[in-house]
Amino acid sequence: MPTPDLSVSFSNITLKTPITLLSGCVGFGEELLNIADFSFKDIGAICLKGTTLEPRHGNKPHRLAETPAGLLNAIGLQNPGARHVVDDILPRWEKESRLKEGDGPPTRLFANISGSTVQDYGEVARIFDDSFVDAIEINISCPNVKKGGAAFGSDPIIAADVVSEVRKATSKPIITKLSPNVTDITQIAKATLEAGSDAFSVINTLMGMAIDIRTRKPVLGNTQGGLSGPAIKPVALLKVWLVYQAVAKYQKPILGQGGITSGSDAFEFFIAGSSAIGVGTALFRNPLISADINRELREIMTQQNIENLSETIGTLAISR
Ligand SMILES: Cc1cc2nc3c(=O)[nH]c(=O)nc-3n(C[C@H](O)[C@H](O)[C@H](O)COP(=O)(O)O)c2cc1C
User: Fold this and answer.
1) Which residues, 6 or more positions from 108, have their beta carbon under 8 angstroms from its beta carbon?
2) Whose CA is nearest to atom 31 of ligand 1?
3) How do residues 275-300 score in pLDDT, each as one tens digit?
4) Neighbour tally for 288: CB within 10 Å
5) For 94-148, how does the pLDDT look when each residue is reduced to its tens digit (9 = 90+)?
6) CATH architecture of 8-311
7) Cα 56–69–60 angle (5° rounding)?
8) Catalytic residue among 142, 195, 243, 271
């Protein structure tokens, strides 16, 4: 049997491996260049830190709290603003030859955009439209200041408004990042699909909190934060499977994510309906984990006689 092929097609973008390094877990990617033995040949895409129109300082500390098998974060979207990212950071990536390491296309870059109003999202997307990024991921989990701080992504109509606004601003592929903190994630998927989304990231973090029993204060400066890591993997898998059933017939791919730490985790996400997978929290423990995940994926593919991961997407066997 030929060597298993790890390249995948995601919304007409070929990724040299199925792994995207997730937003917020690698900053703007530059620190990866300083990690000994880090190789871009293992990385299909890098998703940049959530970016807003204006620079943000982020939340007061603590911003991170470890939980059993997970991580709570409330960074507060610290970032230097879209203009700075596009004018100062991305040109350096454009010249970076290491993105071309390995076989196939270069490691792709995805923007991740946020806003306080629907119009903000459109403006940030317009700034990234005129840049080197291959796709724009929309984080719809941000608070909508005009609606009392409820997340854009918790209401199908408002989520669709955000995607329509971004659609008007860019011709690049749009990936809508769905929140699990909703009653029915498929409703949001369908509404944003109709508004022009090309693909979906499933899932963003689950809201949670931690309490210091001595002070009785919340551990996080922001009181609540997003839970990620292995603790959320079963929830993420279910949401991927639900969204896959809702969107597969429209050929809209899913970037599955939430707690992936191994090739076997990644393979589960393909079976549930992902066309590519993301790794975030696991990078804090091992920034080189992508090489292990790819190696394990190849082993599983060889054992199961699979040449390309596309053969596996959405193959969950259910007896009804
Ligand atoms: C420290 C931290 C910061 C994050 N920042 C962002 C962000 O700026 N935008 C976003 O869409 N998701 C953000 N996320 C969510 C991740 O991109 C990812 O969707 C989530 O953590 C689930 O994957 P994981 O369990 O592999 O980490 C962040 C997660 C962590 C842990």
Assistant:
1) 13, 15, 44, 45, 46, 134, 135
2) 281
3) 999 999 999 999 999 999 999 999 99
4) 13
5) 999 999 999 899 999 999 999 999 999 999 999 999 999 999 999 999 988 888 8
6) Alpha-Beta Barrel (3.20)
7) 25
8) 142
